[in-house]
Design goal:
Number of domains: 3
Radius of gyration: 19 Å
Shape: globular
Strand content: 25-35%
Number of strands: 15
CATH architecture of the largest domain: 2-Layer Sandwich
Distance between the termini: 13 Å
Strand order of the largest sheet: 13-10-9-14-15
Largest sheet: 5 strands, antiparallel
Length: 290
């Protein structure tokens, strides 16, 4: 019997869906013969007494989840997400550089330093990548600080705002789609797949529209119904980042499919696992029994 620590915070428990997912994870662990303990930030000192740690709170190198991950790693405890994955996925320049070096298909992408920002450079980027463009601040998560721009003036406005937070921004070719594929990968192996249905009022999986938060729909998809190229890209992209648990976002399903992002700490509370009842079993087996 092993002890699993599930690291959570108040935001983790903010919705019934998140709470139900945590309970499902706990129940699977107990069915496998293990015990679980929910660890809040105030109880972070308990981590070295666990046999494995599963982080189910927002990961960022600047918050306590990263401290928890580092504590587990320092104690020799298997942890999802590991500190390296958190650092890479929280820095889009680092993440996209790794994907490029691994030859993973991406939209046309470039990194713009603050010193190169000018109206002339903005016009050159539109000529190179097309219109519209997607501009990202490198530490973005949950589609925050990701904006679509259609003119050099709009680009400069967004870039100036993002450069208040970072010395670099990511600029990408815009890829039109009604949904994103999300491929879950664990230890370099396919885990699950779903479609994130993009709301008609935005181009992102989560956005503020007229003062209201709009979320995408989630449709779990059986493996045999997922285009082979999407499966391949998901695994390739995850391996370029590390060997933990990742959710890889992919546009389109044919030969022109491309990776939009690799997420550590992917959500599992919105029905991503409906077609994959063994998702938690496989995650816990990786953490506790390998």
């Amino acid at each position: 019997m092993s002890r699993l620590g599930i690291f959570v915070d108040r935001k983790t428990l903010a919705s019934a869906e998140q709470l139900q997912a945590l309970i499902r994870c706990r129940d699977v662990a107990e069915e496998m013969g293990h015990t679980t303990e929910f660890i809040f930030p105030v109880d972070i000192r308990k981590i070295p007494a666990m046999d494995a740690l599963f982080i189910r709170a927002r990961t960022d190198p600047m918050n306590v989840t990263y401290v928890a991950s580092r504590m587990a790693e320092s104690a020799g405890i298997p942890v999802i997400d590991d500190p390296s994955s958190i650092r890479i996925c929280s820095d889009k320049v680092n993440m996209y550089s790794r994907l490029m070096n691994a030859g993973v298909a991406l939209p046309k992408t470039l990194f713009l330093p603050r010193r190169d920002l000018s109206e002339t450079r903005a016009e050159e980027i539109f000529a190179e990548l097309g219109s519209p463009l997607v501009v990202k601040e490198p530490s973005t998560s949950f589609s925050l600080r990701v904006e679509k721009v259609g003119s050099a003036a709009g680009f400069l406005q967004v870039a100036h705002r993002f450069f208040k937070l970072s010395d670099w921004i990511v600029v990408q070719q815009y890829v039109e789609s009604m949904y994103d594929w999300r491929v879950g990968v664990l230890s370099g192996e396919f885990l699950y797949a779903c479609k994130y249905i993009i709301p008609g009022s935005t181009f992102k999986i989560q956005a503020s529209v007229n003062g209201h938060i709009v979320y995408c729909g989630v449709e779990s998809v059986a493996r045999e119904q997922v285009p082979p190229r999407v499966l391949q890209l998901g695994v390739e992209a995850a391996k370029a980042v590390g060997s933990g648990l990742y959710g890889v976002d992919i546009k389109n399903g044919g030969r022109n499919a491309c990776v939009i992002e690799v997420n550590d700490n992917p959500s599992l509370e919105s029905g991503e696992d409906d077609q994959y009842p063994r998702v938690y079993h496989e995650i816990l087996h990786y953490l506790l029994e390998t």
